C-alpha cells in the first residue's frame, strides 16, 4: 500500500477546494484511505493518519472512528506517538464515552514516567477530560507530582488538581498539605497555577477559606514584589510585571477578604499601592485596575479606598475604548447604592455617555443616570433625560419614559413641575409609555386641585398640536370632560388664559371620535368626556345628537356607552347632574403589607389589613362567605375578626381588580355561614391546632410552575390539610435567576367566590439573586364544592432600584389538587 500523504499536503489540497462540495469530496476520500489503513493495523503511519483526522475534526467533520487509534498511540513508547495520541484523546474523547476509561492505566504509567514531558502530557490530558472515576483513581499520583521539585511538573500538577477538585470536591483535603509550600516558589508559572488552585479550593469550601486566610500577608508580599520589581523581560507585558499573576492574586484576595475585617485590613495598603502605581495608558494596566476596583468593593475596605476605586471607574469613563467605558458603567451601577455620593461626583461624565453611539453603553448610562437621581438634582437630571428621550432610539423610549415617571413621582419639587414633566414625556414618547401611566397621571391631576385650570389648558393646546400620542389624548379627553368649564371660563392663573368656546371644545372631542388615529379606548374616553360636558356646557342638544349617533356603532364598547348615556338623557335626566359631577380626590393606596380582599357582586375591593389594630365593626353574617383573607402575622392559627370597614361610595379608586375576568358564577352560591364569634378563629382554620397540619393524601400531586418572567419563578407544591380534605395547602417557592436581589417582595392572591383563601406570612421579603435561595409562603384554599381551582396572583417587588408590579392568572392546576 502506498504511503499516505502528509498532513501539510492534505491542508494544502483542502485549501484549493473552490466549493463546499469539492472540499467534502476530498475529506471523504481521505477518510476512506485512513479507515483502510486503520483496518490493516498499519503502525508506521498511524500517527500521521490520526494527525490528519484531528485536522478534519477541527474543520467540523466526524472523526469518532479514530478514538481507539488514539489509545494505541498513547500506549506507544515513542514520544511523538504519545503526543498525537493524547492530543487526539483530548479532542475526540470525553467522560460520556466509556472508551476513555481504557486510558486510565496508560495515564497512571505515564504519570510515573522518567521523562518530564511524558508526565506533562498525561497531566494535561487528565486535567482536560478526566472523569470523576479517573480523578479518584489518579488523584494520588497528581498529589505526588504536586510535591516534586520540578517546577515544570508542579505547575501542570496544580492545574490538574483544580480539575480533580471540580470533579470530586471531597478529594480537596488530599491536596491541602501540598499547597503549603506552593506560594514560596520563585517560578511564576508555579505561582500562577498555585493561586488558581487556592482560589478554587476557597470558592468550594468555607473551611478552606478560613484555613487560607492566614496566607493573606504572604499574598500581599508577592503582589508588592511584583509591583516594585524592576524590568524583567521574561514576565513583562507592556511595561507591567506579570499582569496575569497580579490579576489572579487580586481575585484571590477578594475572596479571602470578603466579610473578614482582619484580612481586609491587611490588604488595604497594597490595594492602594496597586491603584496608584499601575500605568493606565495600556489595556494591561486597565485590567489590573479593574480587578483592584472589584476587590476594594467586595472586601471591608476603608471609605477613602472606596472613593479611590470609584474615581478609577470615573477615569475609565473617559477612555476611548468602548469596552472599558461599558465595564466602568456596569461597575458603578453595582456600587451606586452603597457609595452614592462618590458616584455622584462623576454625574456629568455619566450623562455624557448618554450621547454615545454604542447602544449598550447608552443603556447602561441611562440605568445609572436614573439611579443617581435624588431630590437635589432632579431638575437637572430630568432635563438631560428628557433630552435623551427626544433623541434616543425607539428601543430605549419605553424604559426611559418609565424611569422618568418613577423618578418624578418620588422626587418632584412641585406638582406643576411633576405635571409638566409627565406631559412632556407623553408628548414626546406617548406611544411607548406603560399602560398604568394614564390612570396615574389622571390621579395626579385630580389630586392637584389648584392646578386644574392650568392642566386642562395645557392639555387642550397639546391636543390641537398632535393627536397621534394615544395616552396623551386619553388624559386630555378625561381632563376636558372633568374641567371643561374651567377651560372655557379662562380662569388659568399660572399662564395666560386662552379664549376658547364650547363649540370649539366639542369640535376637538368629536374630531377624536372620527379620527383614524384614535384607538377604541381613546374613543371611549372622548365619548365619556362629551357626556360629562352636558352638565358643564349649555350645548346639551348638540351633545345629545353626538351620543345618539354612536348608539349604533360597530364598536360594542362604544355602542354600550352611547346607549347608556342616551338612557340617562331620556329616563334618568333628573339623576344626570349628580351622576356626572366632578370626580372627588382619589386616595392612592400603596401597601407592602398584607391585604384583605372583599368580594361583592363579582368585583373585588381591597383594604389594607392592620395586623396590630384590627377593626371592630361587625360584618353581617350574609357576607361571611365572601371574604378572601390574605392574612399576615406569624401565628398558624391567629384569632381573626371577620369584619370589613364600611367603604364610602367614592372609594372606587381603591379597587384592586385581582380577579379580573375570573368566572365567579361557575357553581351554585354557597349557603351563608352563621356569624362567627369574635373569640373563635374562622372555620377555615377550625381543628388544625390539635391535629397534624398535613397528611400524605397529596403525595402524588405534581408541582407546577405558576409564573416565570423577568428572572422571577414561582412554583406551587401541594398538600392536603388534615383532617379536612376540602382544604388544599399550596406552598409557593419564589426563586430569582437574575444577578440582583429582588427586595420588598409581596405575593398576593385571589380566587372566585365559591372558594375561600388564606395566605400565611412569607419566609422573607427578599428573593436572593442567582437562585441562591428561595422565599416560601403557604396558601390554604377551601374548596367545598370540588370545583376546578382558578387563581389570580399579584407580584410586587423592587429590582435594581426600580419597583415592579405584575398580574397573572393561574388556570392549569393539576386535577388532583382540587378533585
Give the key terms.
six-stranded antiparallel beta sheet; alpha+beta; 31 helices; 819 residues
How would you describe this structure to a colleague?
By secondary structure, the protein is of the alpha+beta class. The protein is built from 31 helices and 14 strands. Strands 6, 7, 8, 9, 11 and 12 form a six-stranded antiparallel β-sheet that branches. The protein has a three-stranded antiparallel β-sheet with strand order 4-3-5, with no helix packed on it. Strand 13 and strand 14 form a beta hairpin. Helix 29 (540-549) runs antiparallel to helix 30. The longest helix has 20 residues, at 20-39. Mean pLDDT is 81; it is low at 590-698.
Q: Which structural category fits the helices and strands?
A: alpha+beta
- Strand coverage percent: 5-15%
* Radius of gyration of CA atoms, rounded to a whole number: 36 Å
How many helical elements? Answer: 31
Mean of residue pLDDT values? 81
Q: Looking at the structure, what is the overall shape?
A: elongated
Classify the helix fraction into a percent range.
40-55%
Question: Total strand count, please?
Answer: 14
Low-pLDDT stretches are: 590-698
Distance between the termini: 76 Å
The largest sheet is: 6 strands, antiparallel
Summarize the structure.
The chain has 819 residues and is an alpha+beta fold.
List the helices and strands and how they pair.
Elements: H1 7-15, H2 20-39, H3 46-59, H4 67-74, H5 79-92, H6 104-111, H7 116-129, H8 132-146, H9 151-167, H10 188-204, H11 206-212, H12 216-228, E1 236-237, E2 240-241, H13 243-257, H14 261-277, H15 283-298, H16 303-316, H17 322-335, H18 340-344, H19 347-352, H20 359-372, H21 378-391, H22 394-411, H23 415-429, H24 437-447, H25 452-465, H26 470-489, H27 502-514, H28 520-532, H29 540-549, H30 556-570, H31 576-579, E3 595-600, E4 603-608, E5 627-628, E6 694-695, E7 704-709, E8 712-721, E9 727-736, E10 742-750, E11 756-759, E12 775-782, E13 791-799, E14 802-810
Antiparallel strand pairs: 1-2, 3-4, 3-5, 6-8, 7-8, 8-9, 9-12, 10-13, 11-12, 13-14
Amino acid at each position: 500500500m502506498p504511503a499516505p500523504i502528509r498532513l501539510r499536503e492534505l491542508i494544502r489540497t483542502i485549501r484549493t477546494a473552490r466549493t463546499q462540495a469539492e472540499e467534502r469530496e476530498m475529506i471523504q476520500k481521505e477518510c476512506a484511505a485512513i479507515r483502510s489503513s486503520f483496518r490493516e493495523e498499519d503502525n508506521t503511519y498511524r500517527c500521521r493518519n490520526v494527525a490528519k483526522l484531528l485536522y478534519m475534526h477541527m474543520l467540523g467533520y466526524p472523526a469518532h472512528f479514530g478514538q481507539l487509534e488514539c489509545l494505541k498511540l498513547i500506549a506507544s513508547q515513542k514520544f511523538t506517538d504519545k503526543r498525537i495520541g493524547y492530543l487526539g484523546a483530548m479532542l475526540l474523547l470525553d467522560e460520556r464515552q466509556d472508551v476513555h476509561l481504557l486510558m486510565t492505566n496508560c495515564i497512571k504509567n505515564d504519570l510515573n514516567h522518567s521523562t518530564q514531558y511524558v508526565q506533562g502530557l498525561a497531566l494535561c490530558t487528565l486535567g482536560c477530560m478526566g472523569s470523576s472515576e479517573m480523578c479518584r483513581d489518579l488523584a494520588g499520583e497528581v498529589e505526588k507530582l504536586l510535591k516534586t521539585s520540578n517546577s515544570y511538573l508542579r505547575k501542570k500538577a496544580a492545574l490538574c488538581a483544580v480539575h480533580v477538585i471540580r470533579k470530586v470536591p471531597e478529594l480537596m483535603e488530599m491536596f491541602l498539605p501540598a499547597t503549603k509550600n506552593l506560594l514560596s516558589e520563585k517560578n511564576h508559572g508555579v505561582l500562577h497555577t498555585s493561586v488558581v488552585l487556592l482560589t478554587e479550593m476557597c470558592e468550594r469550601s468555607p473551611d478552606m477559606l478560613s484555613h487560607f486566610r492566614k496566607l493573606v500577608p504572604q499574598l500581599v508580599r508577592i503582589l508588592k514584589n511584583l509591583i516594585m520589581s524592576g524590568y524583567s523581560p521574561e514576565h513583562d507585558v507592556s511595561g507591567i510585571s506579570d499582569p496575569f499573576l497580579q490579576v489572579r492574586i487580586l481575585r484571590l484576595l477578594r475572596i479571602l477578604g470578603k466579610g473578614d475585617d482582619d484580612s481586609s485590613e491587611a490588604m488595604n495598603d497594597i490595594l492602594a499601592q496597586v491603584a496608584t502605581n499601575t500605568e493606565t495608558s495600556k489595556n494591561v494596566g486597565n485590567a489590573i485596575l479593574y480587578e483592584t476596583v472589584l476587590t476594594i468593593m467586595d472586601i471591608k475596605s476603608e471609605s477613602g479606598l472606596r472613593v479611590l476605586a470609584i474615581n478609577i471607574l470615573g477615569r475609565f469613563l473617559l477612555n476611548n475604548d468602548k469596552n472599558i467605558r461599558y465595564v466602568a458603567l456596569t461597575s458603578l451601577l453595582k456600587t451606586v447604592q452603597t457609595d452614592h455620593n462618590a458616584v455622584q461626583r462623576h454625574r456629568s461624565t455619566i450623562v455624557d455617555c448618554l450621547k454615545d453611539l454604542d447602544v449598550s453603553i447608552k443603556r447602561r448610562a441611562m440605568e445609572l443616570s436614573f439611579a443617581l437621581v435624588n431630590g437635589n438634582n432632579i431638575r437637572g437630571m430630568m432635563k438631560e433625560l428628557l433630552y435623551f428621550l427626544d433623541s434616543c432610539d425607539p428601543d430605549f423610549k419605553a424604559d426611559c419614559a418609565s424611569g422618568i415617571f418613577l423618578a418624578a413621582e418620588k422626587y418632584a419639587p412641585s406638582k406643576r413641575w411633576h405635571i409638566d414633566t409627565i406631559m412632556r414625556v407623553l408628548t414626546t414618547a406617548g406611544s411607548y409609555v406603560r399602560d398604568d401611566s394614564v390612570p396615574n397621571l389622571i390621579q395626579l391631576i385630580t389630586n392637584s386641585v389648584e392646578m386644574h385650570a392650568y392642566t386642562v389648558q395645557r392639555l387642550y393646546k397639546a391636543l390641537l398640536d398632535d393627536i397621534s400620542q394615544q395616552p396623551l389624548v386619553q388624559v386630555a379627553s378625561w381632563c376636558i370632560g372633568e374641567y371643561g368649564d374651567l377651560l372655557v371660563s379662562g380662569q388659568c392663573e399660572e399662564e395666560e388664559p386662552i379664549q376658547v368656546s364650547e363649540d370649539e371644545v366639542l369640535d376637538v372631542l368629536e374630531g377624536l371620535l372620527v379620527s383614524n388615529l384614535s384607538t377604541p379606548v381613546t374613543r371611549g374616553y372622548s365619548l365619556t368626556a362629551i357626556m360629562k360636558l352636558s352638565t358643564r356646557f349649555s350645548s346639551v342638544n348638540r351633545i345629545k345628537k353626538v351620543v345618539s349617533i354612536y348608539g349604533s356603532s360597530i364598536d360594542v364598547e362604544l355602542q354600550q356607552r352611547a346607549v347608556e348615556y342616551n338612557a340617562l338623557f331620556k329616563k334618568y335626566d333628573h339623576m344626570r347632574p349628580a351622576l356626572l359631577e366632578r370626580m372627588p380626590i382619589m386616595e392612592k393606596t400603596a401597601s407592602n403589607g398584607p391585604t384583605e380582599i372583599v368580594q361583592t357582586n363579582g368585583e373585588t375591593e381591597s383594604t389594607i389589613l392592620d395586623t396590630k389594630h384590627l377593626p371592630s365593626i361587625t360584618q353581617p353574617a350574609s357576607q361571611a362567605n365572601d371574604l378572601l383573607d390574605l392574612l399576615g402575622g406569624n401565628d398558624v392559627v391567629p384569632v381573626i375578626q371577620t369584619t370589613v370597614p364600611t367603604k364610602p361610595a367614592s372609594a372606587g379608586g381603591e379597587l384592586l381588580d385581582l380577579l379580573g375576568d375570573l368566572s365567579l358564577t361557575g357553581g351554585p352560591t354557597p349557603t351563608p355561614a352563621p356569624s362567627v364569634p369574635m373569640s373563635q378563629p374562622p372555620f377555615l382554620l377550625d381543628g388544625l391546632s390539635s391535629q397534624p397540619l398535613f397528611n400524605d393524601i397529596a403525595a402524588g400531586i405534581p408541582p407546577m410552575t405558576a409564573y416565570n418572567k423577568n428572572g422571577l419563578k414561582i412554583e406551587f407544591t401541594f398538600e392536603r390539610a388534615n383532617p379536612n380534605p376540602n382544604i388544599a395547602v399550596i406552598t409557593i417557592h419564589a426563586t430569582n435567576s437574575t444577578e440582583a436581589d429582588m427586595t420588598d417582595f409581596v405575593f398576593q392572591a385571589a380566587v372566585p367566590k365559591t372558594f375561600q383563601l388564606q395566605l400565611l406570612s412569607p419566609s422573607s421579603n427578599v428573593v436572593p439573586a442567582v437562585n441562591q435561595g428561595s422565599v416560601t409562603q403557604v396558601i390554604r384554599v377551601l374548596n367545598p364544592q370540588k370545583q376546578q381551582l382558578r387563581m389570580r396572583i399579584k407580584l410586587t417587588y423592587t429590582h435594581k432600584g426600580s419597583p415592579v408590579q405584575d398580574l397573572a392568572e393561574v388556570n392549569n392546576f393539576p386535577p388532583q389538587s382540587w378533585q
